[in-house]
Design a protein that fits this description.
By secondary structure, the protein is mainly beta. Helices cover about 0% and strands about 55% of the residues. The chain has one domain (about 5-65): SH3 type barrels. A 5-stranded antiparallel beta sheet has the order 4-3-2-1-5, with no helix packed on it. The N and C termini lie far apart (about 50 Å).
Length: about 80
């Protein structure tokens, strides 16, 4: 089953690793094959519109966040408060 299919078509930011290097890419999540995700970034260069698509295998993904989404707050502690 595809892990990131709920984010298809949305603007995302993905953090991933390649060897000892950590990289970040932002763009539209265009595909989730079940083994890798594909993020596409569109831009203009020399008066032409271009697109760059990045394939990131699941093994290298650190996190994928929807752009504009706030991180979840930390879970409340289950230990009773000291009085």
């Amino acid at each position: 089953m595809a892990r990131y299919s709920s984010l298809l078509g949305q603007q995302v930011e993905a953090r991933y690793r390649t060897g000892d290097i950590y990289l970040t890419v932002s763009g539209t999540l265009v595909s989730d094959s079940g083994h890798a995700i594909f993020i596409e970034e569109t831009f203009s260069q020399g008066g032409r519109d271009k697109a760059m698509r990045v394939e990131i295998p699941y093994n290298y993904v650190i996190r994928v966040l929807k752009v504009g989404a706030k991180p979840l707050p930390p879970a409340p502690s289950t230990t009773p408060a000291a009085k």
